[in-house]
Amino acid sequence: MAAWQHRLIYFRDFAYPSQPHRSRMPNSDIGDAPAGSFAAYVNGSVTTLPTPPLDPLDRIHKTALVAEELGAESGSDSEQGSKSSSRRSSSDSTRRHSHSRPTLAHRIYTQNLRVQANAKSLRARLLSGPLVDIYVGHSKKHWSLHRNLLCHHSEYLTHELLPTSENEDPESSIDLPDDDPSGFELLVKWLYQGKLDDVSNISDPYQQYDYAVACHALWLICDRFDMPQLKNLAIDQFRQGLYEAELVPDAEEINFIYRKSKKGSPFRRLMTKIAARQIMDPHANKDATSYLSCFRDDPEFAVELVNTIKNDSGGMLFEDPTESGDACIYHDHHDSPDCHQKGKPRTGT
Protein backbone atom coordinates (compact mmCIF):
# COMPACT_ATOMS: atom_id res chain seq x y z
CA MET A 1 0.00 0.00 0.00
CA ALA A 2 1.28 3.47 -0.87
CA ALA A 3 2.67 5.71 1.87
CA TRP A 4 0.02 8.38 1.34
CA GLN A 5 -2.66 5.85 2.23
CA HIS A 6 -1.05 5.53 5.68
CA ARG A 7 -0.60 9.26 6.21
CA LEU A 8 -3.89 10.71 5.01
CA ILE A 9 -6.98 9.48 6.80
CA TYR A 10 -9.82 11.75 7.81
CA PHE A 11 -11.59 12.26 11.14
CA ARG A 12 -15.13 11.71 9.98
CA ASP A 13 -14.68 7.96 9.42
CA PHE A 14 -12.87 7.24 12.66
CA ALA A 15 -13.93 9.64 15.37
CA TYR A 16 -17.63 8.86 15.58
CA PRO A 17 -18.27 5.16 14.85
CA SER A 18 -21.76 5.29 16.35
CA GLN A 19 -23.09 7.57 13.61
CA PRO A 20 -24.99 5.97 10.71
CA HIS A 21 -22.95 5.45 7.55
CA ARG A 22 -25.25 7.59 5.46
CA SER A 23 -24.61 10.80 7.43
CA ARG A 24 -20.86 10.99 6.95
CA MET A 25 -20.79 13.12 3.80
CA PRO A 26 -22.01 16.73 3.57
CA ASN A 27 -24.32 17.82 0.79
CA SER A 28 -22.56 21.13 0.19
CA ASP A 29 -20.01 21.81 -2.52
CA ILE A 30 -16.73 20.13 -1.65
CA GLY A 31 -14.79 23.28 -2.44
CA ASP A 32 -16.66 25.12 0.34
CA ALA A 33 -16.78 22.30 2.91
CA PRO A 34 -14.87 23.12 6.13
CA ALA A 35 -12.04 20.76 6.94
CA GLY A 36 -13.46 19.88 10.32
CA SER A 37 -16.70 18.55 8.88
CA PHE A 38 -15.47 17.09 5.60
CA ALA A 39 -11.89 15.86 5.59
CA ALA A 40 -9.78 16.77 8.62
CA TYR A 41 -6.70 14.68 8.01
CA VAL A 42 -4.78 12.83 10.71
CA ASN A 43 -1.07 12.10 10.52
CA GLY A 44 0.43 8.77 11.51
CA SER A 45 1.12 10.04 15.03
CA VAL A 46 -1.09 12.16 17.24
CA THR A 47 -0.60 15.83 16.46
CA THR A 48 0.80 17.89 19.32
CA LEU A 49 -1.85 20.30 20.48
CA PRO A 50 -1.16 23.70 22.12
CA THR A 51 -1.15 23.83 25.91
CA PRO A 52 -4.59 24.87 27.12
CA PRO A 53 -4.89 28.23 28.86
CA LEU A 54 -4.70 28.23 32.65
CA ASP A 55 -8.01 27.85 34.40
CA PRO A 56 -8.99 31.20 36.05
CA LEU A 57 -9.62 29.39 39.36
CA ASP A 58 -6.11 27.93 39.28
CA ARG A 59 -4.70 31.39 38.51
CA ILE A 60 -6.47 32.89 41.56
CA HIS A 61 -5.32 30.04 43.77
CA LYS A 62 -1.68 30.39 42.67
CA THR A 63 -1.78 34.15 43.29
CA ALA A 64 -3.15 33.59 46.79
CA LEU A 65 -0.43 31.06 47.63
CA VAL A 66 2.33 33.44 46.49
CA ALA A 67 0.87 36.24 48.60
CA GLU A 68 0.69 33.97 51.63
CA GLU A 69 4.32 32.93 51.29
CA LEU A 70 5.50 36.54 51.05
CA GLY A 71 3.41 37.49 54.07
CA ALA A 72 4.75 34.60 56.11
CA GLU A 73 8.34 35.73 55.62
CA SER A 74 7.79 39.35 56.68
CA GLY A 75 4.96 39.14 59.20
CA SER A 76 4.82 38.46 62.98
CA ASP A 77 3.57 35.34 64.71
CA SER A 78 0.08 36.79 64.93
CA GLU A 79 0.18 37.59 61.26
CA GLN A 80 1.36 34.05 60.62
CA GLY A 81 -1.66 32.74 62.53
CA SER A 82 -3.92 35.01 60.52
CA LYS A 83 -2.28 33.84 57.31
CA SER A 84 -2.70 30.23 58.41
CA SER A 85 -6.41 30.84 58.84
CA SER A 86 -6.48 32.56 55.47
CA ARG A 87 -4.59 29.63 53.95
CA ARG A 88 -7.06 27.17 55.43
CA SER A 89 -9.94 29.29 54.12
CA SER A 90 -8.34 29.47 50.67
CA SER A 91 -7.73 25.72 50.77
CA ASP A 92 -11.37 25.08 51.64
CA SER A 93 -12.47 27.40 48.85
CA THR A 94 -10.20 25.60 46.39
CA ARG A 95 -11.62 22.24 47.43
CA ARG A 96 -15.13 23.59 46.91
CA HIS A 97 -14.20 24.82 43.43
CA SER A 98 -12.37 21.62 42.47
CA HIS A 99 -15.66 19.97 41.55
CA SER A 100 -16.85 22.81 39.30
CA ARG A 101 -17.20 22.33 35.53
CA PRO A 102 -13.94 22.80 33.55
CA THR A 103 -13.62 25.84 31.33
CA LEU A 104 -14.65 25.75 27.68
CA ALA A 105 -11.04 25.87 26.47
CA HIS A 106 -10.14 22.87 28.63
CA ARG A 107 -13.18 20.90 27.41
CA ILE A 108 -12.31 21.62 23.75
CA TYR A 109 -8.71 20.56 24.36
CA THR A 110 -9.85 17.30 25.99
CA GLN A 111 -12.32 16.61 23.19
CA ASN A 112 -9.60 17.12 20.57
CA LEU A 113 -7.40 14.59 22.33
CA ARG A 114 -10.27 12.11 22.49
CA VAL A 115 -11.09 12.58 18.79
CA GLN A 116 -7.48 12.05 17.74
CA ALA A 117 -7.15 8.96 19.92
CA ASN A 118 -10.29 7.44 18.39
CA ALA A 119 -9.12 8.41 14.90
CA LYS A 120 -5.75 6.75 15.38
CA SER A 121 -7.32 3.55 16.70
CA LEU A 122 -9.94 3.23 13.95
CA ARG A 123 -7.47 4.25 11.27
CA ALA A 124 -5.35 1.26 12.18
CA ARG A 125 -8.38 -1.03 12.05
CA LEU A 126 -9.79 0.15 8.70
CA LEU A 127 -6.41 0.04 6.95
CA SER A 128 -5.65 -3.46 8.17
CA GLY A 129 -6.98 -6.91 7.49
CA PRO A 130 -7.46 -8.72 4.19
CA LEU A 131 -7.55 -7.04 0.79
CA VAL A 132 -10.30 -7.48 -1.79
CA ASP A 133 -9.43 -7.80 -5.49
CA ILE A 134 -11.85 -5.74 -7.60
CA TYR A 135 -11.95 -6.00 -11.41
CA VAL A 136 -13.77 -3.19 -13.21
CA GLY A 137 -14.95 -2.91 -16.81
CA HIS A 138 -14.46 -5.15 -19.82
CA SER A 139 -10.72 -4.54 -19.55
CA LYS A 140 -10.83 -5.89 -15.95
CA LYS A 141 -8.82 -3.05 -14.48
CA HIS A 142 -7.63 -4.27 -11.08
CA TRP A 143 -7.65 -2.68 -7.63
CA SER A 144 -6.80 -4.24 -4.26
CA LEU A 145 -8.67 -2.44 -1.48
CA HIS A 146 -9.04 -3.02 2.26
CA ARG A 147 -12.14 -5.03 3.02
CA ASN A 148 -12.67 -3.27 6.37
CA LEU A 149 -12.68 0.11 4.63
CA LEU A 150 -15.16 -1.02 1.96
CA CYS A 151 -17.54 -2.54 4.50
CA HIS A 152 -17.28 0.56 6.68
CA HIS A 153 -18.71 2.73 3.89
CA SER A 154 -21.24 0.40 2.27
CA GLU A 155 -23.79 -1.92 3.82
CA TYR A 156 -24.22 -3.49 0.39
CA LEU A 157 -20.54 -4.47 0.32
CA THR A 158 -20.80 -5.72 3.88
CA HIS A 159 -23.43 -8.24 2.79
CA GLU A 160 -21.45 -9.12 -0.34
CA LEU A 161 -18.04 -9.61 1.25
CA LEU A 162 -18.69 -10.92 4.75
CA PRO A 163 -20.02 -14.45 5.32
CA THR A 164 -23.60 -14.84 6.52
CA SER A 165 -22.87 -18.11 8.34
CA GLU A 166 -19.93 -19.91 9.90
CA ASN A 167 -19.77 -22.41 7.04
CA GLU A 168 -19.12 -19.71 4.42
CA ASP A 169 -15.82 -18.11 3.55
CA PRO A 170 -15.58 -14.34 3.01
CA GLU A 171 -15.42 -13.15 -0.58
CA SER A 172 -11.97 -12.11 -1.75
CA SER A 173 -12.86 -10.60 -5.14
CA ILE A 174 -15.59 -8.66 -6.94
CA ASP A 175 -16.21 -8.36 -10.69
CA LEU A 176 -17.84 -5.19 -12.04
CA PRO A 177 -17.84 -5.78 -15.82
CA ASP A 178 -20.55 -3.21 -16.59
CA ASP A 179 -18.96 -0.30 -14.71
CA ASP A 180 -16.54 2.32 -15.97
CA PRO A 181 -13.01 2.26 -14.47
CA SER A 182 -12.91 6.08 -14.52
CA GLY A 183 -15.81 6.20 -12.09
CA PHE A 184 -14.32 3.54 -9.83
CA GLU A 185 -11.04 5.45 -9.76
CA LEU A 186 -12.92 8.40 -8.25
CA LEU A 187 -14.43 6.07 -5.66
CA VAL A 188 -10.96 4.83 -4.65
CA LYS A 189 -9.75 8.42 -4.32
CA TRP A 190 -12.67 9.27 -2.06
CA LEU A 191 -12.19 6.14 0.08
CA TYR A 192 -8.52 6.81 0.81
CA GLN A 193 -8.34 10.62 0.61
CA GLY A 194 -11.81 11.63 1.72
CA LYS A 195 -12.50 13.97 -1.19
CA LEU A 196 -13.19 14.39 -4.89
CA ASP A 197 -11.48 16.95 -7.07
CA ASP A 198 -13.62 20.02 -7.68
CA VAL A 199 -14.39 20.32 -11.38
CA SER A 200 -14.13 24.12 -11.10
CA ASN A 201 -10.37 23.72 -10.66
CA ILE A 202 -10.04 22.15 -14.13
CA SER A 203 -9.29 24.77 -16.79
CA ASP A 204 -9.90 22.90 -20.06
CA PRO A 205 -13.63 22.62 -20.92
CA TYR A 206 -13.23 19.23 -22.62
CA GLN A 207 -11.45 17.85 -19.58
CA GLN A 208 -14.25 19.26 -17.44
CA TYR A 209 -16.76 17.41 -19.59
CA ASP A 210 -14.76 14.17 -19.35
CA TYR A 211 -14.64 14.58 -15.57
CA ALA A 212 -18.41 15.03 -15.54
CA VAL A 213 -18.80 11.78 -17.51
CA ALA A 214 -16.62 10.02 -14.92
CA CYS A 215 -18.84 11.43 -12.15
CA HIS A 216 -21.85 9.84 -13.86
CA ALA A 217 -20.00 6.51 -13.80
CA LEU A 218 -19.26 7.09 -10.11
CA TRP A 219 -22.95 7.81 -9.49
CA LEU A 220 -23.92 4.45 -11.01
CA ILE A 221 -21.43 2.63 -8.77
CA CYS A 222 -22.63 4.47 -5.66
CA ASP A 223 -26.22 3.67 -6.58
CA ARG A 224 -25.35 -0.03 -6.60
CA PHE A 225 -23.23 0.12 -3.43
CA ASP A 226 -25.88 2.11 -1.50
CA MET A 227 -23.74 5.19 -0.84
CA PRO A 228 -26.30 8.01 -1.20
CA GLN A 229 -24.24 10.93 0.07
CA LEU A 230 -21.35 10.28 -2.31
CA LYS A 231 -23.93 9.68 -5.04
CA ASN A 232 -25.36 13.16 -4.45
CA LEU A 233 -21.88 14.65 -4.56
CA ALA A 234 -21.24 12.89 -7.88
CA ILE A 235 -24.36 14.28 -9.58
CA ASP A 236 -23.55 17.76 -8.26
CA GLN A 237 -20.11 17.55 -9.82
CA PHE A 238 -21.67 16.24 -13.05
CA ARG A 239 -24.00 19.25 -13.31
CA GLN A 240 -21.25 21.66 -12.34
CA GLY A 241 -18.95 20.16 -14.98
CA LEU A 242 -21.52 20.69 -17.75
CA TYR A 243 -22.12 24.25 -16.57
CA GLU A 244 -18.41 25.12 -16.37
CA ALA A 245 -17.66 23.54 -19.76
CA GLU A 246 -20.77 25.07 -21.38
CA LEU A 247 -21.44 21.70 -23.00
CA VAL A 248 -24.41 19.33 -22.79
CA PRO A 249 -24.82 15.68 -23.84
CA ASP A 250 -26.04 15.07 -27.38
CA ALA A 251 -29.01 12.83 -28.18
CA GLU A 252 -26.90 9.66 -28.23
CA GLU A 253 -25.35 10.40 -24.82
CA ILE A 254 -28.72 11.36 -23.35
CA ASN A 255 -30.16 8.09 -24.63
CA PHE A 256 -27.30 6.12 -23.03
CA ILE A 257 -27.55 7.87 -19.66
CA TYR A 258 -31.35 7.64 -19.61
CA ARG A 259 -31.40 3.90 -20.31
CA LYS A 260 -28.62 3.28 -17.76
CA SER A 261 -30.68 4.94 -15.02
CA LYS A 262 -33.56 3.40 -13.11
CA LYS A 263 -37.12 4.62 -13.45
CA GLY A 264 -37.61 7.73 -11.30
CA SER A 265 -33.85 8.29 -11.10
CA PRO A 266 -32.52 11.86 -10.68
CA PHE A 267 -30.39 11.35 -13.79
CA ARG A 268 -33.51 10.58 -15.84
CA ARG A 269 -35.05 13.85 -14.70
CA LEU A 270 -31.84 15.69 -15.51
CA MET A 271 -31.61 14.23 -19.03
CA THR A 272 -35.24 15.06 -19.89
CA LYS A 273 -34.76 18.63 -18.64
CA ILE A 274 -31.64 19.06 -20.77
CA ALA A 275 -33.45 17.74 -23.87
CA ALA A 276 -36.54 19.88 -23.17
CA ARG A 277 -34.43 23.02 -22.82
CA GLN A 278 -32.62 22.29 -26.07
CA ILE A 279 -35.96 21.90 -27.88
CA MET A 280 -37.41 25.10 -26.39
CA ASP A 281 -34.27 27.20 -26.94
CA PRO A 282 -34.88 29.41 -30.03
CA HIS A 283 -31.12 29.74 -30.54
CA ALA A 284 -30.44 25.98 -30.51
CA ASN A 285 -30.67 24.02 -33.71
CA LYS A 286 -32.71 21.27 -32.05
CA ASP A 287 -36.25 19.98 -32.25
CA ALA A 288 -38.05 16.79 -31.27
CA THR A 289 -36.71 14.92 -34.30
CA SER A 290 -33.23 15.22 -32.77
CA TYR A 291 -34.32 12.74 -30.08
CA LEU A 292 -36.09 10.13 -32.22
CA SER A 293 -33.63 7.45 -31.09
CA CYS A 294 -34.52 8.23 -27.46
CA PHE A 295 -38.24 7.90 -28.25
CA ARG A 296 -37.75 4.58 -30.04
CA ASP A 297 -35.56 2.98 -27.36
CA ASP A 298 -37.73 4.06 -24.43
CA PRO A 299 -41.21 5.57 -24.93
CA GLU A 300 -41.09 6.75 -21.30
CA PHE A 301 -38.58 9.36 -22.42
CA ALA A 302 -41.20 10.96 -24.69
CA VAL A 303 -43.76 11.03 -21.87
CA GLU A 304 -41.31 12.60 -19.41
CA LEU A 305 -40.14 15.08 -22.04
CA VAL A 306 -43.67 16.36 -22.74
CA ASN A 307 -44.45 16.58 -19.02
CA THR A 308 -41.21 18.47 -18.40
CA ILE A 309 -42.02 21.02 -21.11
CA LYS A 310 -45.50 21.44 -19.63
CA ASN A 311 -44.28 21.88 -16.06
CA ASP A 312 -41.29 24.11 -16.80
CA SER A 313 -42.70 26.36 -19.54
CA GLY A 314 -44.60 28.58 -17.12
CA GLY A 315 -48.07 27.26 -17.97
CA MET A 316 -48.27 29.17 -21.26
CA LEU A 317 -51.45 28.16 -23.12
CA PHE A 318 -51.66 27.94 -26.90
CA GLU A 319 -54.38 29.73 -28.81
CA ASP A 320 -57.57 27.73 -29.25
CA PRO A 321 -57.17 25.88 -32.59
CA THR A 322 -60.98 25.63 -33.00
CA GLU A 323 -61.46 29.37 -32.79
CA SER A 324 -62.12 31.28 -36.01
CA GLY A 325 -58.99 32.64 -37.59
CA ASP A 326 -56.71 31.60 -40.39
CA ALA A 327 -58.53 28.39 -41.35
CA CYS A 328 -56.22 27.79 -44.30
CA ILE A 329 -53.63 26.46 -41.86
CA TYR A 330 -55.68 23.26 -41.77
CA HIS A 331 -56.68 23.18 -45.47
CA ASP A 332 -55.18 20.82 -48.00
CA HIS A 333 -54.31 23.45 -50.63
CA HIS A 334 -51.84 26.18 -51.34
CA ASP A 335 -52.51 29.62 -49.93
CA SER A 336 -55.09 31.32 -52.10
CA PRO A 337 -57.36 34.34 -51.68
CA ASP A 338 -60.16 32.35 -53.36
CA CYS A 339 -60.49 29.79 -50.50
CA HIS A 340 -64.18 29.44 -49.65
CA GLN A 341 -63.31 29.46 -45.94
CA LYS A 342 -61.18 32.59 -46.11
CA GLY A 343 -62.33 34.84 -43.32
CA LYS A 344 -65.57 32.89 -42.76
CA PRO A 345 -66.68 33.31 -39.15
CA ARG A 346 -67.58 30.33 -37.03
CA THR A 347 -71.35 29.78 -36.54
CA GLY A 348 -73.28 28.11 -33.80
CA THR A 349 -72.55 27.95 -30.13
Automatic annotation (TrEMBL):
CDD domains: BTB_POZ_ZBTB_KLHL-like (cd18186). Gene3D superfamilies: Potassium Channel Kv1.1, Chain A. Residues 73-88 have a biased composition (Low complexity). Residues 132-200 form the BTB domain. PROSITE patterns: BTB. It comes from the Eukaryota. InterPro entries: BTB/POZ_dom, SKP1/BTB/POZ_sf. Residues 70-107 are annotated as: Disordered. It holds the Pfam family BTB. This is BTB domain-containing protein.
